[in-house]
Amino acid sequence: FHLAGIRLAPKEKLEIPVLFMPAEMKIYKAVVVIHVMRGNGENWPYEVTGESNRDLNRNVIVAENGETQGILWIYPINGTPEAPQQKSVVIRCQARQRLEQRVELLLIGVMPGATDLPDAGNSAPVDTEEVSSTPEVSDGSSATLEFLYELQYQSDEIRYQLESLVGMELVEKEWDTESRIVTLIFNVVFAPSKPMRSEATLVIQCTAGGLWKFPLVFIATEPEVDDVINIEAVGLNKESIVGFKLTSQTR
Fold first, then answer.
1. Number of domains in the chain
2. CA atoms of 67 and 83, how far apart (whole Å)
3. Residues 96, 71 share a domain
4. Which residue ranges are recorded for the region named Disordered (predicted)?
5. Residue among 31, 8, 44 nearest 77 (CA)
6. Residue 97 sits in which domain range?
7. 96 and 210 share a domain?
8. Pseudo-torsion of CA 218, 109, 142, 178, nearest 10°?
9. Which of 166, 168, 161, 191 is nearest to 97 (CA)?
10. Residue 237 domain-assigned?
C-alpha cells in the first residue's frame, strides 16, 4: 500500500500498519520505505559531504544546489508463516524409570526448494547432536529440506527441571510430494526422578519457510514402592523400633 501527504508535528509519532496474510508456508520479504520532506517544500540547509555518515548519505535525497531535499528510512520485513496450534503430545513415564519413545510429527504445507522434488515416501536417518541443533534432513535425492528444531520452556524453572531429564533426537524424515506433508520422527528419552507434570514446546522451522509448534506434556507418575517395612510388637503398650536407610540421589 502507499500512504502520502501525512503531516507530522515536531516529535509526533506515526504508526504504520503492516498486515501479513501468508498463503503458503514459505518465506516472504518486503520493504517499508518512509520518505520525509518539509511541509513547506523547502530544502534543508544541511549539505551532504564525503565526511558525513555513510548511512545518512545513502538515504538522503540531494537537490541540485546540494541541499537536502528529503530523507528515506528503509525497513526490511521478513515474514515467517506459522502453522495453527497443534495437539499436545503426552510423554508419560513412571518416576525412577527411563522411557524411550518414537514420536511422529506432521508438518503440513512444506514448500520444496528450488531443486526438483524428491520421490514420495523416501526417507533416511539423520544424525544430530542435541536439542537446539540444526540438522540437515536429506532423502537421498537432488532436493534437500533442512529443518531447525528447539525445545522451548515456559520458564527458567521448568527448563532447569526438565533439561537434565529429557533428550530429543531427530532420526528420520518422510516426504509426501502429493500432500506436501513431511513426517519428522523424533526419538524422545524421558527419565524422571520424581512425580511431576511439566510442559514444553517443540519449535520446528524449515529453511524453505514455515514454523510449526508442538506442545509437549511430560508426566511422571508415582514410583514403585521401594520396600515393605514390617514392625513386630514386643508386647502391649511397648514401643518397637525398626531402622532403615534412605539414599539421596543428590548432594
1. 2
2. 50
3. no
4. 118-139
5. 31
6. 89-111+145-221
7. yes
8. 110
9. 191
10. no
Helix (H, G, I), strand (E, B) or coil at 145: strand
Alpha carbons 35 and 144: distance in angstroms, whole number: 41
pLDDT score at 204: 94
Q: For the chain of 251 residues, list the mean pLDDT of each consecutive stretch of 10.
A: 76 88 90 86 71 64 78 89 91 96 92 47 35 40 71 93 93 86 95 94 91 96 92 91 85 78
Beta strands in 158-210 (DSSP E): 166-176, 181-190, 196-206
Positive or negative CA dihedral for 22, 27, 30, 31? positive
Strand partners, 65: none
Residue 154 cell numbers, joined: 515456559
Compute the distance between CA of residue 5 and CA of residue 230 in angstroms, rounded to an integer.
Answer: 89
| Residue 233 lies inside a defined structural domain of this protein | no
Task: Please indicate, yes or no, if residue 138 is contained in any of the structural domains.
Answer: no
